[in-house]
Amino acid sequence: MIRTVELFGVLAAHDVRFIVVGGAAAVLQGVPITTLDIDVVYDRSEDNLAPLAAALVDLDAVFRTDARKLRPNDSHLRSSGHKLLSTRLGVLDLLATIEEDTDYAALLPFAEVVDLGPVRPLVLSLDRLIEVKRKLSRPKDRLMLLQLEATRDERAAKA
């Protein structure tokens, strides 16, 4: 089970810049789906890496696909790949980019603040999530796309 608000709270306490994407963003945008992890695109700017590293220490983060329980270090955080982590608060996937090479700065204009009470993370907008999912071909992404579009259409009908 993911303790989402607490996980975001740790990142926020360290002033980490990130945008929630993927299934967690869909849930936070009101899409009726279930997700087993939190996907975030993080800012790889120099001044964000030390706060992120400190937050990962607080979260007791380790690479979940590595039996050695390696902890992410500075070179990992600087890299462009995905960091698939287990933390004491649940599964966290740190993404340098989504799509081909869309990074934090490119996503920022499409992010919205979602009020979760004690924390207010930036979350990718429903319309931008739909654009991302339309480019993917995995069955789970195609199914999520249907839910994303239905939620968008329901919102439009109520407006």
Which structural traits does this protein have?
alpha/beta, 159 residues, 7 helices
Secondary structure: number of strands: 7
Gap between N and C termini, in Å? 34 Å
Determine the mean pLDDT: 95
β-strand percent reads 15-25%
Q: Shape from CA axes?
A: globular
**Estimated radius of gyration:** 15 Å
| Most strands sheet | 7 strands, mixed
Unreliable runs: none
Q: Count of DSSP helices?
A: 7
Element-level helix/strand string: HEHEHEHEEHEEHH
Strand order in the largest sheet: 3-4-5-2-1-7-6
Work out the helicity level: 40-55%
Structural category: alpha/beta
Q: What does this protein look like?
A:
- This protein is an alpha/beta fold.
- Helices cover 43% and strands 18% of the residues.
- The protein contains seven helices and seven strands.
- The protein has helices at 4-13, 22-28, 46-58, 74-78, 104-107, 126-134, 139-158, and strands spanning 18-21, 38-42, 62-63, 82-87, 90-95, 111-113, 122-124.
- Strands 3-4-5-2-1-7-6 form a seven-stranded mixed sheet.
- Helix 6 packs antiparallel against helix 7 (139-158).
- The longest helix is centred in the C-terminal third of the chain and has 20 residues, at 139-158.
- The radius of gyration is 15 Å and the shape is globular.
- It starts with a helix and ends with a helix.
